[in-house]
Amino acid sequence: MSNVSLNVDAPVLYTAAMFSLEQITEIHDRLGSRATLGGYLRALRDIGIESYDSYVTDGHSEYLGVDGHRLVGPVFHETFAIAETCDKEQFLQYMRQVEQGGVGYVEMSEALAAHGVEKWTFDTERLTITYFDKAGNVLLDEKVD
After folding, report:
1. Can you say how many angstroms the Cα of residue 7 is from the centroid of all Cα atoms in its chain?
2. Taking a C-beta distance cutoff of 8 angstroms, is the pair 57, 118 a contact?
3. What is 2-63 written as a DSSP string?
4. How many CB atoms lie within 10 A of CB 144?
5. Per-residue pLDDT tens for 36-91?
6. What is the Cα–Cα distance from 94 to 7, expressed in whole angstroms?
7. Which distant-in-sequence residues (6+ apart) come within 8 Å of 14 by Cβ?
8. Helix axes 88-99, 105-114, angle to 10 degrees
């Protein structure tokens, strides 16, 4: 039994307990949409996740938590080659299309790979999502409500 609260409106009550893929999956199933992204990040923070990287090439994620806890999730889709360079303006134009909806996760990942995006990072403290190219350059840093 865990004393970790998943109530997104409650204050942060996480302990040094290790988070699990089952917890992450439950939170994602409940809150993993663009409309509830802020609640999703707060719920992840509540179980001890400080940030996580989602890699475009195969969709796996690496979750980083308190006390150095790290958990690597499974591969989510086929492998996509990441373009060597990124045209930032084309990438930003594509992201405006994504914001309009109707783009699935795998379709978005394939397009991001073609645009040269290596990964995105969720920061549960800052409530941000940041997109990076292969060289580690920030392409977009968005605040999540």
Report:
1. 20
2. yes
3. ------TTSPP---SPPP-HHHHHHHHHHH-SGGGHHHHHHHHHHTTEEEEEEETTT--EEE
4. 17
5. 899 999 999 999 999 999 999 999 999 999 888 999 999 999 999 999 999 999 99
6. 34
7. 4, 5, 45, 46, 47, 48, 66
8. 170
Residues 116/91, Cβ–Cβ less than 8 Å: yes
Using alpha carbons, select from 99, 93, 108 the residue that is nearest to residue 56: 108
Do 47 and 23 meet the contact criterion of CB atoms below 8 Å apart? yes
The two structure tokens encoding residue 10: 């409650």
- 119, two tokens: 């990964």
Q: Which two tokens stand for residue 18?
A: 């290790």
Give CA–CA dist 6/97, Å, rounded. 32
Give Dmax over CA atoms of the chain in angstroms.
49
